[in-house]
Specification:
Largest sheet: 6 strands, antiparallel
Shape: elongated
Number of helices: 26
Number of domains: 5
CATH topology of the largest domain: Beta-Lactamase
Radius of gyration: 45 Å
CATH class of the largest domain: Alpha Beta
Oligomer: single chain
Number of strands: 28
Strand order of the largest sheet: 3-2-1-6-5-4
Length: about 800
């Protein structure tokens, strides 16, 4: 009777109690959802926890279960197939109401809460249950680690403690899983915003991984194609495949990261520009183990750069590079996650600058800091979705990088900003290119202006030079009169040379190549700079008298030496010695190969040496680059040595530079020499100028002084002259007097009808008419126009009477030559 009295009444045994809902149910369900564990595939970690629970408690059944709004779902199970049961039938739904204890049901048939439960009455017919709640760090019970049996039993205190410990381990695993999932989501978000995907290839396993952004960049759904090297190469633009293949091979030869810009063709036919960065990890045997890298879609920036800087193609400059720094800013804590690009772009290791906004903002340029901070605050407080600004950021070398920073503001359901995710792009090189482009435009403008001035000056100098020649012929025998005319002639020629030098520098006009005696040229230069340089700079000359002649442009060689002398002067602010030296050299093949020269043979070596500050190796390696200068802004264009290099190369020569800090600098210029020129007879003197025999010459020029003096010069030497002031008048005069005009001297630049047009019209009337074309702007373009028009004789203004008469006679003799034969 005593035992029977302890059994619950039949009505209680047949009852079924619905599990109560925890008071924090909404927060509990939100925490469970953040783990993203429901309805996932089996995982070994949770299966092991279930098996260990069964072993510890000695039960045939064990579960790792989770309770959501409507059900109890089993993540892992022992002794029964995993699945879900309605929440109202779940033992675990009762256990989560007491997070601090293990719920033990020795015999469910005797417990009024479970006696009529389908899990007891039907199904697995459970009688024993023990569940340790899975309690999150926030204190929410989201499920249990539980054991069960079909017979009545109990657990010892040690077993209950062990079950609780297992529950703690399961929660820890869930936390790690959540953190990894959050990191993956954050990485995917950053990659999507910055259009950067990552990939990896495990060589021994022959397995390749692509992030979701890689698929999006390729224009296909994530996971829709197999990530292999062959698949990737098939997307590459056919014109870029060889470069991509060479890039892949080059990765196997270095541990350094490398990058390559190339194009792909998407399935829809769209062409995208990508930047691939990659590096390789090698094994102990030197063979590649793993390739890792990133792919960035740079199409938009590529197209923008091409549109804004079309001239960069002319100089083969690429927008290098926009190296991005990815960042993720937690606005609540102020901490900022930064990608490895922070080191690449700014030189900082991850622990050099604290990852908090207060520390990073101190590295903004003082003139930009308030503007950037105010702009960020307005973007965050005003509800904007994005923010962008440009500012200067101080790198680890204390130099400022110009960066474009942009970010996306992530807000919660109430609109409060929680995070910002974005990236910084280094625009420093791009800004330099823009500045250089503007400087090129200014130089082109200067060249255009110089061309116009040169044309006018040459028209002014031409009558002066020819008038002097006439005065010398008509002058008295007074030596003082002759000396004065010689001085005037030398000064006028020097003015003409100066105009030609300006054109050579500003527009690249090629000068006339003749035999040049370097000894007097260097002597004149040394004398000029001795008068203009500071007296604390001593000028020394070591020039032998037997220097071989070189074939070149004396004005350009003079410019080379002057540029080097000016650089030497600037390198000796406190004074020093500037030495000009020269020598003959017969260079063999080994010598020119050793110093990077051209052809073996005779050379004249010019050396310009200073005792100045000298140059470090990194500066010395760049001195011939256009626009490179170490001088302050406004004190140098960076074109001087580039011009020197261009002129020397155009003469078939080469250069050597020796320099060291505190030990001065020596430039050696090797110019090809012609030893035979030293043995040739001198040219005929001015007294042997050919004269005319009464031939008629038509002179055409819009400058009245040039026209008048040219006419008088020709008449003084036996010619008869007709004149015209423009092309239209020239055609009319020639048509009227075509039977007696033997030759035409015509200016190339005139109003109404220019020289080339007039020449075409004249040759249409008389295809064999000899024509001498004259111009005050002796450029290659001018020569080409004259040549296309049919002109063989060209006269560069300002010209002397001797040059005029020589070319007129040459043109006449050329016409008569076939008849004489």
């Amino acid at each position: 009777m005593g035992g029977a009295s302890r059994r619950p009444p039949l009505q209680s045994a047949m009852s079924h109690t619905t599990p109560p809902i925890p008071v924090n149910e909404a927060e509990r369900l939100g925490t469970l959802a953040r783990y993203r564990i429901l309805d996932t595939a089996p995982e070994e970690a949770y299966d092991s926890a279930a098996r260990l629970a069964a072993m510890i408690c000695g039960t045939p059944l064990a579960f790792v279960s989770l309770v959501d709004k409507h059900r109890r779902w089993t993540k892992a199970a022992v002794g029964i197939e995993p699945g879900a049961v309605p929440r109202e039938n779940s033992f675990c739904a009762h256990a989560i109401n007491h997070p601090e204890e293990v719920m033990v049901i020795p015999d469910a048939t005797r417990d009024e809460r479970f006696a009529d439960n389908p899990m007891v009455r039907d199904g697995p017919r459970l009688r024993f249950y023990a569940g340790a709640p899975l309690v999150t760090p926030e204190g929410f019970a989201i499920g249990t680690v539980c054991v069960a049996d079909r017979c009545e039993r109990n657990l010892s205190a040690a077993q209950q403690t062990a079950l609780r410990m297992l529950a703690t381990l399961v929660v820890s695993n869930l936390e790690e899983r959540r953190v990894l999932a959050d990191l993956g989501l954050r990485l995917e978000t950053v990659q999507r915003l910055s259009h950067v995907g990552d990939w990896e290839y495990d060589v021994p396993k022959k397995q390749q991984y692509w992030s979701a952004e890689i698929y999006r960049i390729l224009g296909v759904p994530p996971g829709s194609i197999t990530p292999t090297l062959i698949t990737a190469l098939s997307c590459v633009h056919p014109e870029d495949r060889k470069r991509v293949h060479r890039f892949e091979l080059s990765l196997r030869k270095t541990t350094e990261p490398r990058e390559l810009d190339h194009r792909i063709i998407r399935p829809d036919g769209a062409i995208r520009h990508l930047r691939t960065r990659a590096e390789v990890k090698f094994g102990d045997d030197g063979q590649p183990l793993r390739f890792t890298g990133t792919v960035q879609d740079i199409t938009d920036s590529k197209l923008a750069e091409e549109a804004l800087h079309a001239s960069e193609q002319r100089y083969k400059l690429v927008s290098r590079a926009t190296s991005d720094v990815l960042w993720d800013w937690d606005l609540a804590s102020g901490t900022i996650w930064r990608s490895e690009g922070f080191k690449t772009v700014f030189g900082f290791t991850s622990d050099e600058v604290e990852p908090v906004w207060d520390q990073l903002s101190k590295r903004l340029h003082a003139e930009d800091r308030d503007r950037v901070i105010d702009g960020l605050r307005r973007a965050i407080e005003s509800g904007q979705e994005t923010w962008m600004d440009e500012y200067r950021f101080r790198r680890t070398d204390n130099q400022y990088a110009v960066v474009r920073d942009r970010g996306t503001i992530i807000r919660d359901a109430q609109g409060t900003a929680r995070r910002m995710v974005g990236g910084m792009t280094d625009l420093t090189e791009q800004k330099k290119l823009e500045a250089q482009y503007l400087r090129v435009q200014r130089m082109e403008s200067i060249g255009t202006l110089a061309g116009g001035i040169a044309h006018d000056l040459n028209n002014v100098l031409s009558p002066i030079i020819m008038s002097i020649d006439l005065l010398r012929l008509e002058g008295s025998a007074d030596p003082r009169h002759t000396q004065l005319l010689d001085t005037m002639r030398v000064s006028a020629r020097r003015g003409a040379d100066l105009v030609r030098q300006v054109l050579t520098f500003a527009r690249g006009v090629e000068g006339q190549r003749v035999a040049v005696d370097l000894q007097p040229l260097i002597g004149d230069l040394a004398g000029m700079i001795a008068e203009t340089f500071p007296p604390k700079i001593a000028i020394v000359r070591e020039i032998p008298t037997n220097l071989w002649p070189v074939v070149g442009d004396a004005t350009q060689i003079h410019q080379v030496l002057l540029n080097l002398a000016v650089n030497a002067r600037d390198a000796m602010p406190d004074g020093g010695t500037l030495k000009f030296a020269a020598d003959n050299l017969t260079a063999d093949a080994q010598f020119v190969t050793t110093i990077g020269g051209n052809q073996p043979g005779p050379y004249v070596v010019l050396a310009v040496t200073d005792t100045g500050t000298g140059m470090p190796p990194d500066v010395r390696d760049r001195i011939f680059e256009p626009f490179f200068t170490t001088k302050e802004r406004g004190k140098g264009t960076g074109l001087g040595l580039s011009t020197v290099h261009t002129i020397v190369k155009s003469h078939g020569g080469f250069l050597q530079v020796e320099s060291a800090i505190g030990r001065g600098t020596t430039f050696r210029i090797y110019l090809p020499a012609d030893r035979e020129l030293a043995h040739r007879p001198p040219a005929k003197s001015a007294g042997a100028v050919p004269r005319g025999n009464g031939e008629w010459v038509l002179v055409v020029d819009d400058e009245e002084p040039v026209l008048t003096v040219t006419q008088r010069s020709l008449e003084a030497f036996g010619y008869q002259v007709l004149t015209a002031s423009d092309g239209v008048e020239a055609v009319a005069v020639f048509a009227q007097h075509r039977d007696k005009v033997a030759v035409v001297v015509i200016d190339m630049a005139m109003p109404v009808m220019d020289g080339p047009s007039a020449i075409n019209a004249l040759l249409h009337i008389d295809p064999d008419l000899p024509i001498v074309a004259a111009s005050g702007l002796a450029s290659n373009v001018t020569l080409a126009k004259a040549s296309v028009a049919g002109v063989k004789d060209f006269l560069a203004k300002p010209y002397t009477t001797e040059a005029l008469l020589t070319l007129v006679r040459k043109a006449l003799d050329r016409r008569r030559a076939p008849a004489a034969a």
